Amino acid sequence: MKLGNIFNKKKEEKEIKGEEKKEEIKKAVPQPVPDIAPKGKKEKTLIQERSLLISPHISEKATDLVRQNQYVFNVASNANAVNIKRAVENVYGVDVLKVNIVNVPRKSRRVGRYKGWRKGYKKAIVKIKKGQTIEVLPR
After folding, report:
1. Residue 107: strand pairing partners
2. Which of 23, 31, 17, 81 has the alpha carbon at shortest distance from 52?
3. Fewer CB under 10 Å: which end of the chain, C or N?
């Protein structure tokens, strides 16, 4: 019986030391400061908006649409029309009138006996105010 008591005392001492260490660690770690900003949606920064616009979509049809003040962009798959409108207005400094979105599905491709898939993507056709331009390819 005495041996059992010795082991129990050691366990109790270890538990007490462990709790003291935990309290010291809690005191040493700085507590997070609560945000003072309102709990509404936060404004996206220019970098986040730029990440929505992956690249300008360059094709024969897209270059013909430039004459009608429409520009085509490959966009992120989670982007919607409102986000795309804001991103184009902030990045290029133009007034956007209309945004149409096309979700291009993936297609199966074959090379010899190997089958695979070409990636699908999302593109946005953005119509801007007459007289404004976007320089898609820098000269």
Report:
1. 118
2. 81
3. C
At 96, the amino acid letter reads: V
75 token code pair: 């966009």
> Could you tell me if 71 and 126 are in contact, meaning their C-beta atoms sit under 8 angstroms apart?
yes
Tokens coding 133: 């331009």
Residue type, 84: I
Can you list the domains of the chain with their CATH numbers?
A: 46-128 (3.30.70.330)
Amino acid at 14: K
Reading the block at residue 136, the tokens are: 């898609």
A 10 A CB-CB count for 125 gives 18
**Among the listed residues 91, 44, 107, the one whose alpha carbon sits nearest the alpha carbon of residue 73:** 91
Residue type for position 52: L
The tens digit of pLDDT for each residue in 15-72 reads: 666 666 566 655 655 555 454 545 555 555 666 777 889 999 999 999 999 999 999 9
Rg of the chain (C-alpha set): 29
pLDDT for position 74:
95
Residues in the chain: 139
Which pLDDT value is given to residue 137? 74
